[in-house]
Every structure is written in C-alpha cells, then in structure tokens.
Write a structure and sequence with these properties.
Blueprint lengths: L4 E9 L3 H16 L11 E5 L17 H6 L2 H5 L5 E2 L2 E7 L4 E3 L13 E2 L2 H15 L2 E4 L3 E7 L2 E7 L2 E3 L5 E6 L3 E9 L6 H9 L10 E10 L9 E7 L8 E7 L4 E9 L9 H10 L4 H4 L3 E11 L10 E2 L2 E3 L15 H21 L4 H4 L1 H6 L3 H8 L3 H5 L3 H14 L13 H4 L26 H5 L14 E3 L2 H11 L3 H4 L5 E4 L4 E4 L9 H5 L5 E3 L14
Length: about 550
Amino acid sequence: MDREQLSFDIVGVGCGVATLATVLRLLKRLREDPATANRPPPSILIVDKGASIGAHTLSGAVVDSESLADLLSLDEYTALPRLATVKQESFQYLTPTGALRVPWVPPVMQAEGYPILSLSAVTRYLATLCEKAGAEIYCGFPATELLYQGDRVVGVRLGDKGIGKDGQQRSVYQPGAEIRAGLVILGEGACGLLAEQMIQRHRLQGHNPQTYAVGIKELIETPAQQGTAGTILHTFGYPLDSRTYGGGFVYRLSDTLVAIGLVTALDYRNPNLNPHDLFRLFKQHPAIQPILAGGKVLEYGAKVLPEGGLHSVPGLVVDGAILVGDAGGLCNSLRLKGVHLAVQSGLAAGDALATCWQQSDFSAAALQAYPQQLQTSAPWQELAQIRNVRACFHHGLLPGMLSVGASVVSGGALPPGKLSFGTDAAAMQPKAGARPCLTPPAPDASAAALQLDKLSALFFSKTHHEENQPSHLKILDPAKCKSCIQQYGAPCTRFCPAQVYVLVPDRQEIHIDFSNCLHCKTCQIKDPLQNIQWTAPEGGGGPIYTKM
C-alpha cells in the first residue's frame, strides 16, 4: 500500500498532560540553554485519536500542583484554568445507612490548598503553550502501530480512514500516514494501545502485572449552596464490599457545580458486580444524596486508572521510544492521584530529551537518564513508600488498611519485600455460588434526573463513532464467548460502563454496540477469558469531554 510518509524529529502519541509536559519542558530547556538557544528546535508532532484536544481527558481532579509549578513560569501558572481551591476536606467510611467521619484526614490524602481543575481544560491550556513553543498537534488521528527498524522504534503508523463495515475500502478511503521520527513519546493513558505493544515486545513488564480500576464520574449542576466551593469529600466502604478496593469522591467545584465519582478496582472477584450500579448506589447514599438534591447531570464519563504501583511500573525506555504518565503505570492509587506523576514524568523526560537532542542520541542507554531522574523525585518516593499497599488490599479492606498504617509509620519499609498479585482477569470467579450484588432501587420522581441508566448517562458523554466502519471491539473466539456466558454469566454486560455489550438470550451470544464505547478499555482488561480485543476506531470517535 502506498502510504504518505512524514518525518519529524519527535512524535508524541496521546495529547494528554504527560506528553504535553514532556514536549513543553523539552522546548523550554532548549530555548533557555545558551548552547541550543540559537539552533532550530526539533520538529515535534503530537497526534491524538480524540476529535479535539482534551476530548478524551478525564480525571478527578484535585491536583498536587508542585510539579505543575515546576513546569510553568509564574505567569503561566497564574493563568492555569482553576475551578476552585480546596479549603475543607473530610474522609468518611460509609455504611449502608450512615457514615463514620475519620477524625483526621490521613497525611497521604490531605489536599487542603490544592487546586481543583478541569483536566480537559488544563490539557487545552498546555497544548496552547506547546503550540506557541513550536510543536504541531493533530487531533482525530489515532496511532495504530509502532514502526520498527530491527528492535529500534522509528515512528508510528496512523489508522486508515474510510473503511466500511464490511472491511472494504469506501470511496472516501485514506490510508494512514507513516510518521518517521527519531523518538516516539507514548503518553496514551492507561492500557495504551502502542504502549502495550511495546511492553510486550520488549518484555518491559514489572515484577507484578498492572492492575487497574475503573473510575466513573459525573459533573452535576445543583441549586446554589453558598460558600461550599472548595469543599471535598473522600469515602471508602459502601457500596463496595470488604474484598473490593476503591472509593468515592465528591468535589465542590463551585457553589453550583459538583464533581462526583466512584473508583472500583478491577481485581474484584464477584462476576455479578456492576460498577455503574455501584455508582448509582453511591449517589443515593444518605451522606451523598443531600449534596446532589435538585441537581442535573451535565457530563458523564469513565476511564481506567493504573493502580499496581511501583512493582507494576514497566521499563520506561527502549531504543527510540519512552513511556510517560499513565501509559507507564505512574499513578498513586492510595491518593487517587496521577496528574502530578504525569507532569513529573514529563519534567524528567523533557530534561533527558534535551540532552539526547544535543547529542543526537535517542538510544535506550541515553534515554535512561529519564527514569533515573524520575526516581529521585518526590512523587516517585510516594510510590516507593506505598509499594506493597495495593497488594495487601487484594486480600481485603482490613489487611489493606493495616498495610497503609505500617507503610506510613515505617517510611515504606513495611510491608517488606515485593508482594505479588495476579491479573485482574484472573481474579474473577465463576458465577456458581457467587453472591448477588447490590442493585439500585428505582428512584423517586425527585431524583430521576440524577439516577440515570447507562444509556441515559452515556448521552452526557457526547460519545459518537462513525457507524459505517468495522467494530473496533472484537470477540476473538465465539466459542470462548459462549463458555464465558455459561461460566461467568456474561460479565461484559455488567463491567462495561457504557452498555457496549448486550446479551442476546435466545442465541446465547453477545451483541456489540461499538458506537457506545467510552474508550475506557475495561472490557479488554477484565474479560476473564481474555477474549475481547480493543483496537483504535476511526479518528475522532469516542467521548467529547469539555468540562471533565
């Protein structure tokens, strides 16, 4: 096939905070260094599969902003789009009917004084700074394959456009271009398509496999509650059972705007568990419902978070490519924070790439300066301190909480060693003997606008895909699918937060409505038989987050 070939010095995949921080730091370093200030900067292209910058960006987001302050000038940091600043915080254990307030917020969870941001807005802001510094950004162009010369990454291939449902080329067909580059920055987010290809090919896996959680979030507009902006609440316990890790959050972004979410770890065991049902139960809890009363949903979304911690972080560099942010498993699952780690990885990568550019050397040996610098940073030391905590939560809430206390008191020395765990898919148990899970009761009329089923909620994600294209979600073996239905009771119909998978009872098969997909990749991660494959759809498809 005759493909257009483009050449750049550096190409970034995924227009998220980690990629943008890397590019911005690199260009600033080169501009400020007398040795390179008068040289042309490297040509840099960033490609993203979303329809616009920030369209696929979702986070809490109460942000530990120290790394952002290091990245930005004082004027740039002052102009950062903020929604509020945390002025009051609480930490509560929820029971089915009540709440027990923890008398003090654990130090690792404290956030007073931190900014509350819309991460999609921050992404757009950082993208503007990168473009002013000389980078180019193209949206609607998914990168689907790494290009190699031997074992060296030499670029990426973009996805084709204009292929019909039947797999045949339509009249508007356009083959995806090949972008050749001296370095590829992979910042696609958790479970990134190319990042996973690179990790598997180069055997970069950490001591443990990565474990994930799915976070479901809504922005809700409520009647004005004066003076509440900057009030945040973190919860654990109900509606999650004692063997399922996770927690909820409620952030007051203004007197009329609330961000609410529930994070459910995907190493749960019960095949009947439905994260979206749990999210609805969370909103109905007596401690949460009054905050949302009279409100309406403005935006809905879901994403996965890499929660494995230090022992699940893969190797971050190979010849010609690096992993940054969530793509490299850089997230603090205890704090529910990954933005500061994404920015910190960008700072370390940008510094290393400045030296590599000066020396015209993007080999793995030269790129090792990136993880070496990252490992001296304060956010990395956070990961080191809690390196075994996530493994302890795999055994239940009590062992997990004890491990948190031990790690804080011992400065990370306890629990000792490298505790292990398996994959999220392998954790699921067969439906035989599985307990029924909680389901939300039908809401009364006053709460109907807040208690949305999956399809109704999906409307507020503005998710859209070109219908006349092959499904980007594939069941690899139909026989395995029937076996999964028999063994596990079609769990894909429950763990997907967007109703992509529907059981057809009379044929005992799964119908896929790929147009509903939020690109969270929960299905590929949690499918117990690993029989679902997520690939990139035609460019521009997926959710369109503007306020998340």
